[in-house]
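Figure 3 (text version): structure tokens given as input.
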């Protein structure tokens, strides 16, 4: 008994003579040859776009490096930044409430 490829099932495809590409195969025999397809979700598309924007914008990379450094040093968070963030949050919350009415 010969065992090869434990757990792997192998299928051998026999292509009729003269069938070289998918188009020929489809026309000659009516068979549809499976095609790989990749569908990206809208979130994945957005993340890829953001990655490409970041990679191509040196000023953004500099800003990110500066902010990381400030966070590590403990000087990034200030009362003024907290107040601005809370004000913006409350404004966004108010506009969301107004638009849902």
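Below: residues designed for each position.
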């Amino acid at each position: 008994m010969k065992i090869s490829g434990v757990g792997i099932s192998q299928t051998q495809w026999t292509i009729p003579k003269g069938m070289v590409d998918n188009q020929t195969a489809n026309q000659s025999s009516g068979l549809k040859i499976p095609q790989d397809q990749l569908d990206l979700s809208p979130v994945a598309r957005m993340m890829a776009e953001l990655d490409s924007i970041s990679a191509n914008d040196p000023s953004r990379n500099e800003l990110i490096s500066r902010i990381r450094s400030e966070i590590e040093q403990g000087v990034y968070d200030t009362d003024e930044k907290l107040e601005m963030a809370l004000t913006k949050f409350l404004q966004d919350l108010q506009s969301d409430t107004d638009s849902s009415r």
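The mean pLDDT is 78.
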